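User: I'm writing a tutorial on reading structure tokens. Could you give me a worked example: one chain, its sequence, then its tokens, then a sentence or two explaining what the tokens reveal?
Assistant: Sure. Here is the example chain.
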Amino acid sequence: MLKGDLYIKMKIQGNTDVILNIDNVYSVNKNASIPSNKITTADSDGLPGVIYEKSGEIESEYPTYNANGTVNGISATSSTCSNRNIQTALINLGFYSGPANGNLNSDLMRIAIGNFQTVYGLNKTGAMNQTTLSKLQLVDGFRNRAMNILAENENNVITHHDPDYVYDVNDEKGYGIMQWTFWSRKQGLLNQAKSMGLQPKDLNAQLAYFRTEMNTLYKIQWNEFKSKTTLADSTDYFLKELESPKDNNSEERIGFANEIYQLMYKL
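And here are its predicted structure tokens:
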């Protein structure tokens, strides 16, 4: 979780910095104080941008990235561009595939916002409100920072499902981030995806179904999992009580979990 003030600052000329808030643009001298409680996003056009996290007098900087790995930037100067920032963030997170035109009321946008709210446990309205906006900024900032960390890892390999695989709830083949295998769980994933207008392969559909399972079928186990305090204990419990694969390769999973942790703790 991000702590302190999160804002985006970009030097555009001389000693002038632009600090972009979702509703306003502040132009200040580089030595001026940063407006408090401002969380910002970057438009995908313009000059390269940098996310700065400020906690007290300490600043850390993180380059921001687009979905294709290029550096993000700042050029927004109006409320319309601020809406485009929202659309760009939803594009980055895989919720929206339409044009970044500043229109938050289109059918595609309302579906995208509603799906985002579903995945992140918010009241599903399909409309952008301050709670949703704050969560969107937090998640997109986390994603940008994660991409930065992964870009530094030369051994990073991203794999996907067999593109020829045809989803079948009865084939007893593990699928998705939870390797759902039993027919009822795969049917649940399929139902979740359909309710969001997505396919089971979509990561956001899988994240939403994971949340659904943890809030219903596995609520007791999920609360117990969250009480674990060591990497080994939490990995072993998740493997046996939540994922429940046929191959109980606990030691190998702990090794994988440690590799992931070494990347995640930097966030």
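What the tokens reveal: The CA atoms of residues 9 and 71 lie 14 Å apart. The chain is about 40% helix and 15% strand.
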